[in-house]
């Protein structure tokens, strides 16, 4: 039944909220979006101040069922799937924290000092104890066994992340590696004269100390040179194989000098990886055994190449 606007107190006036034609009651809505909804101007494409979208409910039938989607008053800061990026249990430790990084550096250098002390003990024993030196030189099987143990322990620590991160197995494997490597280094150093070994130890100490201070103070980022250093080590390996068959003092000196230079840069590279902070790449504080292993190998290689330079120069 039509309503006549010409009757009643509002006769002849257009009523607010109804159709534009007076005298005819607007037809009932036939469903969204027909029947007068949305309002003139279109349904707003983005939430406006004071506007709330219609309660569609959670289309996935989850915990948000019956609430306005995608807004959730209870989980307003949750990300996709309810993941809270600020949850410390999800985000994990902040390894950029300076206190954590300083504790990590102290732990690495403490382990490194123990490794170097063990190594220097083997070098001193095999260089200054004639009976032990003679026994080792007359028993080549000890060298072979130590070499195999060293290779197995190094591959285990380098490739098995669970082993080098889990105490105490990581300390045990590192101790075994250090014993084997110290014995091999002592046997190799015992083939040189004692004063040459002492000179190599002094030069290595000075070089490593200077490079470590340089790595801590310099503004240059050496952590981006990983690929270049890998190529340099491969070239050095090929050069070393060639030098084995070329018995020339100049070739041996060049090879030893290149080796000392490359591993000196490696020492700076590994030191900055350990430091983290302003550098592009860094080692996780969980990898303290791996960081100590890297620094130890760098120092050992620098010492052997410097000793080779002194030995070939004297010959």
UniProtKB/TrEMBL annotation:
Q: Enumerate the PANTHER family for this protein.
A: BAX INHIBITOR-RELATED (PTHR23291), TRANSMEMBRANE BAX INHIBITOR MOTIF CONTAINING 7 (PTHR23291:SF47)
Q: Does the keyword Membrane apply?
A: yes
Q: Where is this region: Disordered?
A: 1-68
Gene source species = Dendroctonus ponderosae
Q: Where is the protein localized?
A: Membrane
Per UniProt, the ranges with Pro residues bias are 46-57
InterPro entries the UniProt entry points to: Bax_inhibitor_1-related
Q: Which taxonomic lineage is given here?
A: Eukaryota, Metazoa, Ecdysozoa, Arthropoda, Hexapoda
Magnesium as UniProt keyword: no
Similarity field: Belongs to the BI1 family.
State the UniProt keywords alphabetically. Answer: Membrane, Transmembrane, Transmembrane helix
Bias class Low complexity marks the residues at 7-22, 35-45
Its record classes its membrane topology as: Multi-pass membrane protein
- Put simply, this protein is called Protein lifeguard 1
Instruction: Give the CC-aspect GO terms.
Output: membrane
Chain segments annotated as transmembrane? 108-128, 140-159, 171-190, 196-216, 228-246, 252-269, 289-310
């Amino acid at each position: 039944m039509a309503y006549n606007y010409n009757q009643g107190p509002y006769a002849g006036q257009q009523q607010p909220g109804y159709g534009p034609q007076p005298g005819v009651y607007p037809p009932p809505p036939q469903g969204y979006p027909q029947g007068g909804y949305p309002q003139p101007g279109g349904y707003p494409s983005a939430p406006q101040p004071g506007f709330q979208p219609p309660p569609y409910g959670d289309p996935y039938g989850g915990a948000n069922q019956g609430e306005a989607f995608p807004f959730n008053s209870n989980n307003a800061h949750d990300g996709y799937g309810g993941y809270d990026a600020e949850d410390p249990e999800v985000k994990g430790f902040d390894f950029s924290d300076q206190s954590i990084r300083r504790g990590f550096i102290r732990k690495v250098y403490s382990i490194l000092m123990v490794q170097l002390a063990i190594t220097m003990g083997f070098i001193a024993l095999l260089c200054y104890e004639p009976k032990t030196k003679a026994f080792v030189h007359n028993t080549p099987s000890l060298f072979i066994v130590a070499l195999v143990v060293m290779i197995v322990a190094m591959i285990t620590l380098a490739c098995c992340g669970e082993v080098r991160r889990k105490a105490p197995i990581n300390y045990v494997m590192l101790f075994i590696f250090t014993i084997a490597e110290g014995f091999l280094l002592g046997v190799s150093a015992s083939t040189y004269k004692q004063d040459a070994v002492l000179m190599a130890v002094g030069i290595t100490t000075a070089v490593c100390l200077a490079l470590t201070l340089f790595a801590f103070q310099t503004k240059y980022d050496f952590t981006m040179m990983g690929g270049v250093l890998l190529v340099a080590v491969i070239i050095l390996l090929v050069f070393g194989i060639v030098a084995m068959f070329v018995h020339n003092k100049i070739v041996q000196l060049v090879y030893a000098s290149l080796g000392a230079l490359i591993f000196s840069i490696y020492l700076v590279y590994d030191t900055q990886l350990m430091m983290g902070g302003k550098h592009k790449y860094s080692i996780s504080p969980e990898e303290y055994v791996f960081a100590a292993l890297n620094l130890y190998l760098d120092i050992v290689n620098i010492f052997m190449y410097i000793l080779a330079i002194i030995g070939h120069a004297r010959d």
